[in-house]
Design a protein that fits this description.
- It is built from eleven helices and twelve strands.
- By secondary structure, it is an alpha+beta fold.
- The chain has a five-stranded antiparallel β-sheet with strand order 2-1-5-4-3, sandwiched between helices.
- The N and C termini lie far apart (115 Å).
């Protein structure tokens, strides 16, 4: 009978340099040994798969040659630190592939010590480009959903929900500081004629244009929101006198007087405005909104293209 083959135990296997060489040459991670001058002394074959460069091309160049300019200072600083002291460091670095594209490597570096002296650095990098792209897309999507939850998709202005939150907070702060809050309810005059004459697409463009004009007219004095359709609201959070409101109202009315160029069509629009002021006309956002709506109705009844304050003269 033949002699049974000898079996190596785990310790003997991992003492075999061929095993380590096999691992390094077939791993998908990018393994490299970098000397004290930042030259590649060893690179794993996986570099060609990920970056497109052959091992020979990598070995005849500096590690800085293909590193993103914005990442070089960080890489040099980390390399120097690992040369000066026996330590381990992590980082994200962008490298340019042979085809010109950029990939991001999640890299861990470790000082290479020989005979008690640091002679270089060993790094292991993993391509995380796709992972980072997906994470960014997910983050952008989540931010978009969050934005759409509180903003009007057509004009990108705050929507009704956000506007009422802002109004509630403004009323609370105005009470503490002894000032007033004014709400303007703005509605286009005869907007249905625009849709009937030019179509809803042009109508939407006109609404977007109105939103821009209102935002420009109000500026940093307050918040403009789209409630729906051709209805907008404006919140003026720190009002000390009626004149503060009148100045904004005048700017809004003037912003609509000229003929608008909407996708090549000359459109003329005017607006009616109803105003309610807290605390005189309401102590909460809902009441203020209802009274501004009532004032808007009065403005329409009085001939449109004008502003009416709720209740008696303020």
């Amino acid at each position: 009978m033949g002699k049974a083959p000898a079996h190596m135990n785990a310790s003997q296997i991992f003492q075999n340099e061929d095993i380590y060489r096999l691992i390094m040459e077939h791993t998908r991670d990018l393994i490299r040994v970098i000397d004290v001058d930042f030259n590649f002394v060893y690179v794993s074959p996986s570099h060609e798969t990920v970056l497109g460069y052959t091992v020979d091309e990598m070995l005849h160049g500096s590690g800085l040659d293909i590193l993103h300019p914005d990442d070089k200072d960080t890489a040099i600083s980390m390399h120097r630190q690992m040369i000066m002291e026996d330590t381990m460091m992590d980082g994200l670095f962008r490298f340019q592939c042979k085809n010109g594209e950029w990939v991001t490597l999640e890299t861990r570096g470790r000082s290479l010590v020989k005979d008690g002296k640091v002679v270089g650095v060993v790094t292991v990098g993993r391509d995380v480009t796709e992972r980072l792209r997906m994470e960014k897309e997910l983050k952008d999507y989540e931010e978009q959903l969050k934005f759409l939850a509180f903003h009007d998709p057509l004009t990108a202005l705050p929507n009704r929900s956000l506007f009422f939150e802002i109004t509630t907070q403004a009323i609370r702060e105005a009470k503490l500081h002894g000032c007033r809050v004014a709400m303007l309810f703005i509605d286009c005059d005869d907007f249905k004629k625009i849709n009937d004459a030019y179509g809803h697409h042009i109508g939407d463009e006109a609404v977007k244009e109105l939103g821009k004009r209102l935002a420009l007219a109000v500026g940093d004095r307050g918040t403009v929101a789209r409630i729906g359709g051709d209805e907008f609201t404006v919140l003026l959070p720190s009002v000390t006198s009626r004149q503060d409101v009148v100045e904004v109202v005048d700017r809004v009315l003037r912003s609509t007087h000229s003929v608008w160029d909407v996708n090549g069509f000359g459109i003329h629009l005017t607006v009616s405005i109803g105003v309610a002021v807290s605390p005189l006309d309401g102590l909460d956002a809902d009441t203020l909104f209802r009274h501004a709506d009532t004032a808007l109705y009065d403005a329409k009844q009085q001939g449109k293209n004008r502003c009416v304050f709720f209740g008696s003269e303020r």
